[in-house]
Design brief:
Layout (H helix, E strand, L loop, with lengths): L2 E6 L19 H18 L3 E4 L12 H11 L3 E8 L10 E4 L5 H16 L16 E2 L3 H4 L5 E8 L3 H7 L2 H18 L2
Parallel strand pairs: 1-2, 1-3, 3-6, 4-5
Antiparallel strand pairs: 4-6
The structure holds zinc ion.
């Protein structure tokens, strides 16, 4: 079975909590890890091999994108899926978005598989898509996408800066639904 590298964004704790909800103190790094761990559980259950680039709440050495990319590449990952929560100055900003590197790549198809499952699971979650090239992913040469050898996507699951979405990101049922959607999207890629 394929080898899936899951990349829970940010090193966590005081090293790098990622985006933080100003009101509740909810930290992006925590949410990323919780959901990635569940994605792993679902993928392992159906036979995939899974490597996580961070497994602890705070893991100082993961505060290096180079370290994360090397982990994925040395392991020989077939896919890399990076999980993040979005943040914006405006509390109104909301929705889900997924990124791939510029141009047509295998990451585009992976992105479409994942986003279809996520939007199917959460009809109320606004899809922030870029349909210019006919598919929903946005293009950005993020380090983790650019320096991993395998097809890679970066999913911004929802806005931690938005009060309603922060509530969802902290909700264990929502986390489980998101994890299952991401795992199904990854499986769909191999169908
Ligand atoms: Zn992030």
């Amino acid at each position: 079975m394929a080898k899936i590298c899951l990349d829970p964004g940010h090193a966590g704790g005081s090293t790098d909590p990622g985006a933080v909800n100003g009101k509740t103190g909810l930290q992006e790094a925590t949410v990323n890890l919780v959901i990635a761990s569940q994605v792993k559980k679902y993928l392992v259950a159906v036979g995939y091999q899974v490597l996580m680039t961070r497994t602890e709440e705070e893991q100082v050495e993961t505060d290096s994108l180079e370290y994360r990319c090397e982990l994925a590449n040395n392991w020989g990952a077939d896919l890399v899926v990076s999980l993040h929560c979005n943040s914006a100055a405006s509390k109104q900003a909301n929705g889900v978005e997924i990124y791939t590197t510029a141009g047509e790549t295998a990451g585009d198809r992976l992105a479409t598989c994942i986003i279809n499952q996520v939007t199917g699971t959460f009809p109320d979650l606004q899809l922030r898509a870029d349909w210019d090239d006919g598919d929903p992913d946005k293009e950005e040469n993020f380090y983790i996408l650019r320096y991993t050898d395998a097809p890679a996507v970066l999913l911004e699951m929802a806005f931690i800066s938005n009060p309603e979405e922060a509530k969802k990101l902290a909700d264990s049922a929502w986390q489980t639904d998101m994890a299952r959607a991401v795992a199904r999207g990854i499986s769909d890629y191999f169908v």
